[in-house]
Amino acid sequence: MYLLFDIGGTKTRIGVSSDGVNLDSSQVISTHQDFESFIPVFKDIAESLSGGQAIQACAGGIRGVLDENKTVLIYDAVLPDWVRKPLKETLQNILRVRVFLENDAALGALGEANKGAGAGFGIVTYITVSTGIGGAKVVNGKLEKQVFGFEPGHQIISLDGMEFEQYISGTALTKEYGMPSEQINDPAVWDEAARRLSIGLNNTILHWSPHIVILGGGLMQRIPIERVRFHLSQTLKLFPKPPEIALSKLGELAGMTGALEYLKQNLKT
Questions:
Q1: How far is residue 27's CA from residue 5's CA, in Å, rounded to a whole number?
Q2: Euclidean distance between the first and final Cα of the chain, in Å?
Q3: How far apart are CA 251 and CA 244, in angstroms?
Q4: Helix spans in the chain (H)
Q5: Topology, domain 117-248
Q6: Which residues in 193-215 are b (16+ Cβ under 10 Å) and which e?
Q7: For 60-111, what is each residue's pLDDT tens digit?
Q8: Do 2-103 and 117-248 come out as alike in CATH topology?
C-alpha cells in the first residue's frame, strides 16, 4: 500500500494506491493554516484509507518553495505557518516509511507528462492557473534537474516589479474586480485574462522551449484556451512554430498521478 498527498493552499487530497500504479481512493479536506493541527488529521486519514494495511512508502506535493533537499517549505505566502516546519521528517516519523516530497505543481507536471495531455511529448511545460500560478518542466518523463524548483508565476512581467501571478490568478482577479473569480461573468474580463496569460506563457516558452504547454488549475475552466492561443500567436514571433497549447487531461488528479510517478521513479533509485 502506498500513500499519496497533494497539499494546496485551500484543499488537501490524500489517497492510496495498492499497486503503485493506480489511485484506489482519496479524500479531500481543507488545508489547515496551522501546521501542528494538520498532522494528526493527516495521520488519521492515512490510517483510514489504508484500511489497516501496512504503508510501504509515501510521496506527495505541497505548494511553495522547498529547500534543496526537498524536506521543508522555505517560502509560501499562503501557508506561512508551514514555513521551516520539518514536514518530511514529521511525516516519516508518523508513518514510519520513506517520504518523497516535491512542489505540488511539479508533481502536476509529472502526472500530465506521463499519463495526461503530455504523454508522448519529449519536453513538456505544465502551468497551473489557480489561486496563484505554478508550473514545471518535464523532459523525457522526468522533472528537469533544478536547485529550488520552478516558479514561473513569480517571473517579473513589468519594469515596476509586478509578477506574472499578480496580473493573472484567482487572487489577482479577486483583488482587481472586487469579487471572487467564479462570480465574474463578463466575457471581456476572461479575454483579457487570456491575453495576460499569453504574455507569461510567451516568456516561459522562450526560456524552456517545450513541445507542448499544458494548462491546468481552476481558472482554466473560465479562461478560453482558444483566446490564449490567439493572443500567444500575436506575441510569440521568434520561433518558427509555437508549441502545442492544451488543457490538462487529469484535472484535479494531476498532482496525485504525478505523486505516483514520482514515487515509482524514486523507489527505482
A1: 10
A2: 19
A3: 18
A4: 35-50, 87-95, 104-115, 164-167, 170-177, 187-208, 225-235, 254-268
A5: Nucleotidyltransferase; domain 5 (3.30.420)
A6: bbbbbbbbbbbbbeebebebbbb
A7: 999 999 999 999 999 998 899 999 999 999 999 999 999 999 999 999 999 9
A8: yes
Cα–Cα distance for residue pair 245/205, rounded to 1 Å: 11
CB 116 within 8 A of CB 214: yes
For 81, the grid coordinates are 505557518
Task: Assess contact for 83 and 29: CB atoms under 8 A.
Answer: no
pLDDT by residue (tens digit) across 169-203? 999 999 999 999 999 999 999 999 999 999 999 99
**Domain-wise residue ranges, the chain:** 2-103, 117-248
- This prediction has a pTM of 0.93
Q: What's the CATH class of domain 2-103?
A: alpha beta
